[in-house]
Design goal:
Elements: E1 12-15, H1 21-32, E2 36-41, H2 45-57, E3 62-66, H3 72-82, E4 88-93, H4 109-134, E5 143-148, H5 152-155, H6 162-182, E6 187-194, H7 201-204, H8 210-215, H9 226-237, E7 248-251
Parallel strand pairs: 1-2, 1-4, 2-3, 4-5, 5-6, 6-7
The structure holds NADP nicotinamide-adenine-dinucleotide phosphate.
InterPro entries: NAD(P)-bd_dom_sf, Sc_DH/Rdtase_CS, SDR_fam
Keywords: Oxidoreductase
Family: Belongs to the short-chain dehydrogenases/reductases (SDR) family.
Length: 255
């Protein structure tokens, strides 16, 4: 039997925030490894359509589905729309926002609430739908959920994004608890904690120079690329990680 990186079952994969950054890289790599991909986005439809074209160029099927993961109804309709591709066996809980960098004492309440709404409440609701569609006792086929945490959950992001770090701490707890809850259901639940990764999120936080400034002080002396994070995510989704659940894989260049 052929063994290799493409070993094992694939199926329909949902990626929240699949239009840009780590999510887009995950959609592309997952398609190359045999997944059909439901690509969720919030605003940037042209970017999502470009990712879909790349998924199809890899010979897989793609669906582009708009939805704000901070809105419970949008989470439900994302899963309903994705099911048109077939039974869902993989979910990447990736959509995330950071807020505007600064000390916590200066942070507006509505900004903090907005980050928590996407990164915590939204991610928990996505995980809930993943449990509902994949759990064997509910008629699902089993599968894998990968939650995007951050090394900020353990470093704390002082002076920059303490609220964001706290939101990722919630992802770590979600991963621990849900992995135990869904172990008997044939659903593996893991987290990936990226370090400094070259995406738009840093400019969105008002710090376009953040990577250049901080990367030199890291053990590997550079920022990571979204493709390097996608490798970890797609491995955790795959049957190659068949006995891995409840893990939190740091992809942080030693930081
Ligand atoms: P990014 O480049 O800013 O892309 C964010 C993606 O999430 C976009 O596709 C965006 O969609 C989508 N999104 C944002 N808010 C959404 C919402 N409410 N509903 C649905 N989709 C939404 O971010 P990234 O750097 O790739 O980050 C991806 C994940 O990795 C996040 O959870 C982030 O916290 C985590 N992470 C990133 C880093 C890093 O250094 N980059 C480090 C650690 C952890 P639109 O295109 O439509 O706006």
């Amino acid at each position: 039997m052929a063994m290799g990186p493409q070993r094992g079952a694939t199926g329909v994969l949902i990626v929240t925030g699949g239009s840009r950054g780590i999510g887009a890289a995950t959609c592309r790599l997952a398609a190359a490894r045999g997944w059909d991909v439901a690509i969720n986005y919030a605003q940037d439809e042209p970017a999502a359509e470009r990712v879909a074209a790349e998924v199809e160029a890899a010979g897989r099927r793609a669906a582009v589905i708009r939805g704000d993961m901070a809105v419970a109804g949008d989470v439900l309709s994302l899963f309903q729309a994705a099911a048109r591709l077939g039974p869902v066996t993989g979910v990447v809980n990736n959509a995330g926002v950071i807020g505007a960098a600064g000390p916590l004492a200066e942070a507006p309440a509505d900004m903090i609430a907005g980050v928590v709404a996407v990164n915590v409440t939204g991610a928990i609701l996505v995980a809930r739908e993943a449990a509902r569609v994949m759990a064997r006792s509910r008629g699902g086929r089993g599968g894998a959920l990968v939650n995007l945490s951050s090394i900020a959950a353990t470093l704390g992001a002082p002076g920059e994004y303490v609220w964001y770090a706290a939101s990722k701490g919630a992802i770590d707890s979600l991963t621990i608890g849900l992995s135990k809850e869904l172990g008997p259901e044939g659903v593996r639940v893991n987290a990936v904690s990226p370090g400094l990764i070259e995406t738009d999120i840093h400019a969105a936080g008002g710090q376009p120079d953040r990577l250049a400034r901080l990367a030199v002080g890291t053990p590997m002396g550079r920022a990571g690329g979204p493709d390097e994070v996608a490798e970890a995510i797609v491995w955790l989704l795959s049957e190659a990680a068949s006995y891995v659940t409840g893990a939190n894989l740091r992809v942080g260049g030693g930081r």
